Amino acid sequence: MKKIMQWLLAVVSTVLVAAFLWVTYQQANDLVHYPLETRSPPKHSVYDFDLQVSEVVRTNQDGQQLHAYFSSTHNGAYVMLQHGFKADRSYMFEEAKMLQDAGYGVLISSVRAHDLNDGDEISFGVREMDDLQTWYNYLIDEQGAHADKVGLLGNSMGAAMVIEYAAQNQAIAAVVAVSPFSSLQDTINVSVEYFTGLPAFPFAPMISIWAETILGMEVEQADATKAAAQLCTTPLFIMQGGKDIVVSVDSGQWIFDAACGEKELWYEAQLGHTKFDTQKSDEYARRVVAFFDNALL
Asked: Where are the domains of the chain?
């Protein structure tokens, strides 16, 4: 009888472990893949905001087609706008309209595996750096933008990405990061429940391992805090809400503390993830435009 019980316990344990591995693999696979046929349609049209933009399509160095919206400048400066995880260009229309009205040229960029773009694999900024470089080259080489008059603004994953890109391209003149994650590992620990419905422990560590295996990269490669430590000559404006459940509410402070140059942190205890433009719209517009005016004009 004892041997039977031991055998049953072993079988049950094996089944539970197999189920755990299968569930975490599926969740990781869903997190890092976003095929075109599964993407949601844009939530807004450019006409909803009276945006004066044109569609631009360019190809990154991996041969993938990328889509953006572009408008020329009236004050000599440009701002690239980058959306977040599994979002699209329409998530940046409020910001684009605000900046366009202030005279800025805007490039509402998008990256692989998002929007109408080729690709279905999301590497959380590691390979997407090439996509941001494609759009930066478009501004400099094709539109004649001056390097000291190009700024970046990103939301969520896009916010972390613009910090990391600015660390790689020190010509970037200013960065606004709205609800950035401090590192990919930290945001996995926080946001597993939000995106998957599973508790962080014990699922987050295994999901991280599977994500690394699927993508062929290490989670540590996506780290906005380390990137911020290289922004010693690039002004950085960070926004963080205290009700954020997608990234750690300490992310903004960690990035701010790491940054070595001119920096500003706007913390709002009652705001959720990327809610500054909708719940603090007037102050948001005033502070963002003033920041770019000071840095780019």
From this structure: 45-183+222-296
CA 50, CA 143: separation in Å to the nearest integer? 22
Q: What CA–CA distance (Å, rounded) separates 75 from 90?
A: 24
Burial letters 154-183, b for 16+ CB under 10 A, else e:
bbbbbbbbbbbbbbebeebbbbbbbbbbbb
CATH architecture of the domain 45-183+222-296 equals 3-Layer(aba) Sandwich (3.40)
CA distances from 271 to 1, 42, 158, 267, 274 (A): 59, 24, 18, 9, 8
pLDDT tens for 18-65 read 888 898 899 889 989 999 999 999 989 999 999 999 999 999 999 999
Please work out, in degrees rounded to the nearest 5, the angle formed at the alpha carbon of residue 32 by the alpha carbons of 70 and 176: 40
Element of type H or E holding 30: helix 2-32
CA–CA distance, 59 with 70 (Å, rounded to integer): 16
Q: What is the mean pLDDT of the chain?
A: 93
